[in-house]
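Blinded run. Sample ID left blank on purpose so nobody reads anything into the name before looking at the predicted structure. Input follows.
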Amino acid sequence: MTQIRLPLFPLPGVVHFPRTELRLHVFEPRYRQLLRDLEALPASERWVGMVLIAPGGSQRPRPILSPGTAARLMQVERLPDGRSNILLVGGFRFEIRAEIDGAPYRRAEVGSIEEAPLDEDSPAVRTLRSALCGAGRALQRELGERSSISAERLVDLAAGPFELLVNGLATELDLSPLQKLELLRRGLPSRGRDLHALLQGRVQMLDLLRPLRALATRPELN
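Blinded prediction complete.
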């Protein structure tokens, strides 16, 4: 692991994955300062550590969970009142080694987590890609407009690299933050296998519930 120092942007309910985009609205004074500090750096050095705040509890500062994703600041839209809309793109996963004292925002020494080399054309990866796409399509068909991911988005993800397919699905599906964090802990392709198991479980549950859903649409039974 390579050890580096990162400013942290802890959020409740948000897990950011490598190679995915994250749009945020920055309004707190400490994060406005973080944004100014990032913009003072060369574009290639504008990295921030996106981490999940542990749910519950009254401890201050709120505990944060590892791993996180180092994200690069790509765009800033300044608003008249001093707030900003920003675009981040995920770069690499990291483990928190130690938090660093300082203000106004949190910082940490982190160790980057390297992904093992992946052969996109290997039979195992191609089979898993096909299974993920199939499960995603089946879930989208079952849920229709209630699905958190559109059929068009599935087509886009299926056409891209395996890592983007896995991370894009993990980002857009309505999984709990802790489920997403558990996926982030996994390296590729284990993350893809775990995600496929989650998708298959949902498809099977919806299949079991189909007769009940059909009855619910019959007004004479309500």
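Unblinding after everyone has recorded impressions. The chain has a mean pLDDT of 91.
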